[in-house]
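A quick aside before the break. I want you to see a complete sequence-to-structure record at least once, exactly as it would be stored in a machine-readable document. Don't worry about memorizing anything.
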Amino acid sequence: MSISLWTSAAMAEAMRAEVQGVLPQAISGLSIDSRTLAPGEAYFAIKGDVHDGHDFVDAALKAGAALAVVERAQRDKFAADAPLLVVDDVLAGLVDLAHAARARLGGQVIAVTGSVGKTSTKEALRRVLGAQGETHASAASFNNHWGVPLSLARCPASVRFAIFEIGMNHAGEIEPLVKMVRPHIAIITTVEPVHLEFFAGIEAIADAKAEIFAGLEPGGTAILNRDNSQFARLSRRAKKLGVSRLVAFGAHKKSDARLLDVSLHATCSAVHADILGQDVTYKLGMPGRHMAMNSLAVLAAAALAGADLALAALALSQVEPAAGRGVRRVLEVAGGEALLIDESYNANPASMAAALNVLGQAPVGPHGRRIALLGDMLELGPTSAALHGGLLEAVRANHIDLVYCCGPLMRNLWDALSTGKRGGYAESAAALEAQAVAAIRAGDAIMVKGSLGSKMKTIVNALEKRFPGKTALDEAAV
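That is the input. The structure line, written in tokens, reads:
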């Protein structure tokens, strides 16, 4: 028997919707995709950049949707007895439902933003808090103008903890979303030079991230990266907006959640930290210093939300990378195995350097090589060429043996590479596929990364198809 998320009457009231047809009393969930909708869910006919959800209402109802939310201007497309909630604008109706969801929440609400690490931090919080009470968190990277209200409207009233990821690539995007979420705790993982195409500089990016303070509940806490260059600027902005408590995390000696020591391994990290005055030693189930740093924010947030700190630290050993953000797979190749690290979801200079650092820690066989397959980093504005070429330092520092580049922007790195480190170049990911597949041999560690628009996932798919394998296990945990 499905659990009711909403009643149709409560949905209609929250969205000020007109009822058409006979609606079931209970709604088990919300969907905006007729292909993945589960029976009993309400289907929202959102208008996207490519498709209009109204074109899929009939398919959603045939798939078992309890009802469909449609706009008044298009209601005549559907049968007179179709179970519908009719509103002026479907997205606006979803936002109204999100506000109603937040109003009924009694648990602790956490919002996460930052130039890098939003999703991994949100997923770590999901794992840590989910072990201690009913927890809801945004799906995937649902962090924009439709993802945030959908995630909030999907939140059961009964949860103890609710975690929401909030993203942006323009100024003014975070504030309306955070005012919807109204968190008790807000985390800014870091501020880095990303989306520079839309900002004058990193200070402007910091100001846009600081919009998250505008929605903090009275008495709420802001958790900020003490090691980041924009910490002072963010702190001033938080205080100006009346944030009552600032918690700093990092290696800096004045951090409230302070990294005391970290031992980095190929698939995990061992961390010793002081979290709000408590000495904690724990294993983190993901590699990389950047992940260890963000784990400090996770533990600080967990403690502030009322979770048991010792249990939270213990749960971090079970944290795994999200899809396209460091997932490892063993490839079966001629003569043995190779390791594939899938970082294909997105990229910017900070995350690219972090991924190269993780590749530098990856184990290789007797004749294996560390190979980076890198696609363009997008939305970097006029400094894009220099930022791509600047990756040479991270390539050298992490002893990467071969680099394959694709895309006109990544040509800047290709031109800077020494002949010995040049693996291959192509204008697109699709054109690089054959070179990548041909290059792999037993003992290699391969990392694939680029902005979503550079379509580096096609190379990951090609490698996995050509060399079927298995998910790589953390040997220390087995």
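Two observations worth writing down. Residues 389 and 413 are 4 Å apart (CA to CA). The first strand starts at residue 6 and ends at 7. We'll return to this after the break.
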